[in-house]
Amino acid sequence: MASPTDYQNLLQVIQKLDKRRRQVFVEALIAEVSLDKLKDLGVQWGLLGGASDGTSTVVGLYDPQNVFTQLLATLGSVRGAGLIIPDLAGTPANFGAVLRALETNGAVNVLSTPNIMTSDNKEAEIFVGENVPFITSTNLSSTGLSQQSVNRQDVGIKLKITPQISEGEFVKLDIFQEISAVKADRGQATDIVTTTRSAKTSVVVKNKDTVIIGGLIQDQDQVNVSKVPLLGDIPLLGWFFKSKSTTRQKTNLMIILTPRIIRGAEEMTEVTDSQKKKFDDAVRMDQPFSLEGELKPKQ
Which of 263, 207, 217 is CA-nearest to residue 32? Predict the structure, then answer.
């Protein structure tokens, strides 16, 4: 209920506000590069001996670097293949030595190219991964059977984006991105171990421009030295009595975003056709995904 003058004023305000909300199509590229390097150099020594005069027996073992454990395992494999290897039993003294010279390089790339569309100022979320069970507690029942409580968690690639269109064809993006994975080496843990890398930020990007969010997330160096006391400290000659291993792990996370404002049905059809073409090209392409190719400027 309103007077004719107020009604006309409210009608004009309603017509200005009652407009179709624009949408934003965001192309994302998530690249996680993990680099592992290992250098292992040196000599490991050990001594195993024993003697008996018929009435008493003396046995000694000096193996601080587990040399004989490695040698005995190797000899067991060789004997299993049918080769004759002299037995160490009955020998007064046995010196074991292992020469270590190893250098490895490994790189693992976790790439994801999620595309997502949402309305202006509305949060959108995309998740690619799996639901992993985690043991939270273990109880012993009255019957003697153990009962375990399991809690499931999502592990994979998660991306949340909230776009906000502003004046001048600029788009403000509130971003939350997370990469989680199950670790193969549990170490001392009895349950599943996961690794997580995440980034949360807010950026302003012009329509159809590309912004790169990235940085070194982890850089870890580990040096282990195993040596024979005193002998391993001798300059130069000490390398015959010690071994040194150096491990370096680097994890770099990069997020590339390209927002595009969708104003109507024509632009919506254009984006749909473009994504269909990309899907068809990806199906026909035999070569692996190229990060350098994706970073090149589009013609």
Answer: 217
3-state SS track over 17-79: HCCCCCEEEEEEEEEEEEEEEEEEEEEEEEEEEEEECCCCEEEEEECCCCHHHHHHHHHHHHH
| Residue type for position 298 | K
**Residues 29/259, Cβ–Cβ less than 8 Å:** no
Report residue 180 as tokens. 């989680």
> pLDDT per residue over 79-112, tens digit each?
666 666 555 555 666 666 667 677 777 666 767 7
Residue 72 near residue 63, CB atoms below 8 Å: no
The DSSP output letter for 289 is: P
- Residues constituting the chain: 299
Does this model's pTM top 0.70? My answer is no
Enumerate residues 6+ apart whose C-beta is below 8 A from 256. Answer: 28, 29, 30, 31, 210, 211, 212, 213, 294, 295
Q: What is the DSSP letter of 288?
A: P
